[in-house]
Amino acid sequence: MTSFEHPGTPAGRPPGPAAAAYDAAHGAAHDAVYDAVVLAGGGARRLGGADKPGVRVGGRALLDRVLAACAGARTTVVVADPRPTARPVRWAREDPPGGGPLAALDAGLRRTTADEVLVLSADLPFLAAGTVRRLLAALRAGTAAGALLTDADGRDQPLVAVYRTVALRSALAPLGAAPGGLTGLPLRRLTAGLDLTRVPDPVASFDCDTWDDIATARARIREHDHVLDEWISAVKDELGIDLEVDTGALLDLARDAAHGVARPAAPLTTFLVGYAAAQAQGGPEAVAEAARKAAALALRWAKEAQETDAAGPEGSTAARPGDTGPDAG
């Protein structure tokens, strides 16, 4: 089974609360306007014609996983027949359907207006928002027409890339004007003539072309180092929650509640923290404040229990039932 590092996490990004400051300093590119085009209408021949965008990895459709990674796009266009998705999108279709990646890209591009466009396939199980930020930053750091990922073997992945929209349209125009148009043309006919910046990322560039690839992706997200992040992301998508919180602090709270009070106190306490934050109509800061208060209470509770246990039944000076005073008995 293929071994992966955590997707979309650049080297040097600190864990816990410090991550927010890192992202603020390194993710400015994420704030600028871009559109996204997701190609999701292929035939999936190596999957036996299965509905590849709808295949689930970690309980989520592959298409929904990709849409979560590009949630920062102003407009997201999915080139495929419409289907239910976790996030709102615009739909487009190449003419004729099944005309290939260049025809699909052209159909999606016609519905975008931003100066930069993120182009993705719908079968990228490990794509993350951090990868999108890195691609945008790489494009904006120079004058190239685009920035794309390269895979573990150093091969270009033009469907995990961000391009300057004017460069794409200029390159597509003469290809579309030729006899036969864009139908059936491979992507390399487009990218071969573009000046591109390459960003190595063997994880985010991993795509699912076969059932073996699907099995590898499903196994990877259940590895110990990744399963919690994957589960939290899946739950947030399922519940329609777009909230980043310090999961480390919540886990510490759950541990303290379970150890200092009782094991069932852990899930109940974290639920109450979330409910309190929602009542306060707050975001991550409200969750952090509620968690801090609950954690302090759990520590006080545990300390009190330790003091009582240390004193023992004969060491306590508190009046007991039946006592009438210091000299009772």
Characterization of the model:
Helices cover 42% and strands 12% of the residues. The chain has helices at residues 18-26, 62-69, 101-109, 129-140, 165-177, 188-191, 211-220, 227-239, 247-260, 265-279, 284-315; strands at residues 35-39, 56-57, 60-61, 76-79, 90-92, 116-121, 146-150, 156-164, 196-200. The strands form two sheets. A seven-stranded mixed beta sheet has the order 5-4-1-6-8-7-9, with helices on both faces. It has a two-stranded antiparallel ribbon with strand order 2-3. The termini are far apart.
SSE map:
Elements: H1 18-26, E1 35-39, E2 56-57, E3 60-61, H2 62-69, E4 76-79, E5 90-92, H3 101-109, E6 116-121, H4 129-140, E7 146-150, E8 156-164, H5 165-177, H6 188-191, E9 196-200, H7 211-220, H8 227-239, H9 247-260, H10 265-279, H11 284-315
Parallel strand pairs: 1-4, 1-6, 4-5, 7-9
Antiparallel strand pairs: 2-3, 6-8, 7-8
Helix pairs in contact: 9-10, 9-11, 10-11
Strand content: 5-15%
The backbone outline, from C-alpha atoms, is elongated
What's the number of helices?
11
Instruction: Give the end-to-end Cα distance, rounded to a whole number of Å.
Output: 73 Å
Rounded mean pLDDT score? 82
Task: Point out poorly predicted stretches.
Answer: 1-30, 316-322, 324-329
Task: Give the structure's gist in a few sentences.
The protein has about 325 residues and is α/β, with parallel strands linked by helices.
What are the main properties of this structure?
single chain; 329 residues; alpha/beta; 7-stranded mixed sheet; two-stranded antiparallel sheet; 11 helices; 42% helix; 12% strand; elongated; disordered N terminus; disordered C terminus
